């Protein structure tokens, strides 16, 4: 790709999204490059300043690449006989409701401290609660 002209076909905010797109295109025989990948791996705070991760392909492959990326994800294949047909869903231990919701947390202070000190004060992970009664669900708590 040294002498080829490259065209950006998509931009991503997260490295894993760009990697999924790259894998999809490369499985179709389209050579790709993720611009700014190494710099953002070193310090993701540069993401907005650099305009995110741009997925680059050859100009002649750009149209086909956009078509491939625009396709919806394939549906999951049906399970084989004898297998659990669906994964376990979260359910409330108090009321048994399967309706859960993500808990929004205030992480701005932690992010500001991370920017100033270089040390992450942000608590990793996400939490969920019952949408019906508000009981917090423990991580990994599932209704089989």
Q: What are the key terms here?
A:
disordered C terminus; 144 residues; 3-stranded antiparallel beta sheet; 5 helices; 6 strands; alpha+beta; 2 domains; single chain
Overall pLDDT level: 77
Using DSSP, what is the number of strands?
A: 6
Straight-line distance between termini: 50 Å
| Low-pLDDT residue spans | 140-144
Shape annotation? flat
Structural class: alpha+beta
State the helicity in percent bands. Answer: 25-40%
The major sheet is characterized as: 3 strands, antiparallel
Name the helix and strand elements from N-terminus to C-terminus, one letter apiece: EHEHHEHEHEE
Structure summary:
This protein has 144 residues and is an alpha+beta fold. It has five helices and six strands; from the N terminus they run E-H-E-H-H-E-H-E-H-E-E. The strands form two sheets. The chain has a three-stranded antiparallel β-sheet with strand order 1-3-2. The protein has a three-stranded antiparallel β-sheet with strand order 4-5-6, with no helix packed on it.
Report on this model:
The structure is a single chain. This protein is α+β, with helices and mostly antiparallel strands. It has two domains: 6-70, Alpha-Beta Plaits (2-Layer Sandwich); 87-144, no CATH class. It has five helices and six strands; from the N terminus they run E-H-E-H-H-E-H-E-H-E-E. The chain has helices spanning 15-27, 37-42, 47-50, 62-70, 108-117, and strands spanning 6-12, 32-35, 53-58, 100-102, 128-130, 136-137. It has a three-stranded antiparallel β-sheet with strand order 1-3-2. It is flat and about 60 Å long.
């Amino acid at each position: 790709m040294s002498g080829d002209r490259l065209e950006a076909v998509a931009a991503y905010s997260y490295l894993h999204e760009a990697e999924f797109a790259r894998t999809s295109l490369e499985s179709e025989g389209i050579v790709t490059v993720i611009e700014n990948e190494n710099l953002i791996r070193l310090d993701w705070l540069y993401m907005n300043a650099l305009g995110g991760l741009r997925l680059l392909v050859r100009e002649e492959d750009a149209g086909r690449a956009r078509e491939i990326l625009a396709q919806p994800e394939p549906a999951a294949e049906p399970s084989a006989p004898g297998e659990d047909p669906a994964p376990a869903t979260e359910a409330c231990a108090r009321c048994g409701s399967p309706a859960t919701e993500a808990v929004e947390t205030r992480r701005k202070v932690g992010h500001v401290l991370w920017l100033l000190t270089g040390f992450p004060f942000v608590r990793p992970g996400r939490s969920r609660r019952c949408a019906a009664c508000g009981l917090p669900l423990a991580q990994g708590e599932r209704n089989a």
